[in-house]
């Protein structure tokens, strides 16, 4: 068995993995718009941004392999395609978004420079760190997370104890599903699949004497502890945003709202300090995403250094092209990609968490196929083709909440397992 100290260390590592600085801009505006239904959006947001990612880590603890293992039961070819799609999305959307957040929170308030200049300088530095692989960012990252957490806790506590505990009107048609869909934008379920394996490998290297069962128990305890921390931070930021309903204009941007709340609660100095910390944390995230993608491609080309560098260059070019746009635009552009890849990722996580007797190859294939098919209407709706498929969508349960894949995937799971049970009984 592992000591409590080891469990806490692993929990903090997992917390840091999911605690992307770019994600901090999402919860306050959710609460700001949800008003007195803030608890519903908090519940929805924490399902997709906390529970599912933590289940992804538990799936990794069970598999004790890499990202490729998550989808290989469908087929090795499908798994490889899935990996490429996930990495392509990662360097095209969440990585550039870190540059945009950095410009809006850390650069724009201080310098009258264009977002394109920020993006160019930002990703030149990212490229230099990616090709030179320095441990300095790991060291900085370990210091940044505690510092940001302390400031955020101060903001939340100051708001709860010093501001009127009242809320505005809800603007969401469905607060719960809006919270779930906004949780997609954290990319944390994808992060669990992509980077979770790194945590497993690290534990295997440090604790070679431990058996499979002990490691799995360690990761499970640490995972739930990290999840509790994420839940408290996200829920705190959501209720903070909800309590600020009279302090800002209704159309305020996500980054401006977070900055404005920090100024109102802690003053300009603390707000500036938060902006600097968030910018540095965003940079470490971008370096991690580009490095991880380059490592994956390198592995596909027999550890080719050339493949690694070319992938890093492509990742940084995409970062510059997308990173010059504002955060709101990048979030809007990400919606179609997330409406397609996130449901697949969620069902892969859930299937890998389940006992093997309920998650055979046949079950994987049936559930993933149903998820892909019934995600298509949601995807088409997200790119403005909702009217074209309106006749089909009205017959799909939950499609009006952009989650039409949920019940078909569940039905496919039940039917596939029923067929297997029937075949076993015959034999």
Describe the protein:
- With 427 residues, the protein is mainly α.
- The protein has two domains: 4-353, Amino acid/polyamine transporter I (Up-down Bundle), CATH 1.20.1740; 354-427, no CATH class.
- It is built from 18 helices and no strands.
- Helix 2 packs across helix 11.
- The protein is globular.
Summarize the structure.
The chain is mainly α.
CATH class descriptor name of the largest domain? Mainly Alpha
The helix tally amounts to 18
Which class of secondary structure composition applies to the elements?
Answer: mainly alpha
By CATH, the superfamily of the largest domain comes out as: Amino acid/polyamine transporter I
Mean pLDDT: 86
- CATH topology (fold) name of the largest domain: Amino acid/polyamine transporter I
From the spread of the alpha carbons, the general shape counts as: globular
- Estimate the helix proportion, in percent: over 70%
CATH architecture of the largest domain: Up-down Bundle
Oligomer: single chain
Q: What's the Cα radius of gyration? A: 22 Å
- The helix/strand order is HHHHHHHHHHHHHHHHHH
Our measurement of the CA-to-CA distance between the termini, rounded to an integer number of angstroms, reads 42 Å
Strand residue percentage: under 5%
The main sheet comes to:
none
Instruction: Give the tally of structural domains.
Output: 2
Unreliable spans are: none
Number of strands: 0
